[in-house]
Amino acid sequence: MGAVKFYRLECIKQEDWNGKDDIYITINGKRVYSTRIGEDGTRTIDKTYRFEGDVAEVRMYESDDADADDLLGEQVPLLGYNELKFREDGAHYVLSCELS
User: Is pTM beyond 0.85 here?
Assistant: First the structure.
């Protein structure tokens, strides 16, 4: 069993054209965090999430009501401190985290 601590989420460029992004993050397919955030916004998370296995596959999505949710990217953090970048579908987010 491993653990990843999320420190901060920064939105450099949001995915949606209208309104704020409805973001959620999964670890190995399990939804662990969600927030509503706009361009140039930041969120302090400061929370540790435990996961099964040796690898934490972190995916970020933007929730859509009208069609399928948008995958903004997936990253596998390395041991120690990481700044994960999610840049798919026109968005740009940075998630600061630490894998232990």
Answer: yes
